[in-house]
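Fig. S4 source data, part A: sequence.
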Amino acid sequence: MSKEKREYRAMTLDASEEEKRVTGYASTFNEPYTLWTDKIFGATITYREQVDPKAFNDADMDDVIMQYDHEGRVFARKSNGTLDVNPDDKGLHISADLGGTELGRGLYEEIRGGYTTKMSYGFTVDEDKEERTEDGDGNVDILRTILKVAKVYDVSAVSLPANEGTSISAEIRSRIDGAIEDVRAERLAAEELNLQRRRAEVRAKALLGGNK
């Protein structure tokens, strides 16, 4: 599976004294968050996302690993019992024991000391849907709901939350660009129609004036 298909989202991490353990949520359910905004012809397009509570029910999470910035050393792993990744009523809960290696204990101290406070997770989507609404001012809201996650690859402590270019996969970036182009085309078509109407009005006035 090419990493270009994977998506990444940033969340927070907490540390406890027990077993050098860190906890957090890789995802929360039914809590929309904004991925991207843009302005076109004075109107705002907002692309948001939320996760359905059943999205992880059939997801492949057999051997999720914990890394730093999604690469390099493995600090915890589901298959050896040092990482738990399970959905609950709130979202996808993460709990990792970092006490097994010297580097893991070092990462734990960084998290405990507040030097590293964010996490991200890598995943692919099997099924989703998009809903588009527009208000009276022409502002467009597009809400993507992730209905079915195919696979969770990793959870990672990150130095900085994933930026726009890395947190949105190439596939989703293409969707957003497509949605923006659709809105832009609609705006241009509306402007062209208004221009044609104004031209017709001018011609009609000119004709009527010429017949007086």
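Fig. S4 source data, part B ends here. The helical segments are 102-112, 164-167, 170-211.
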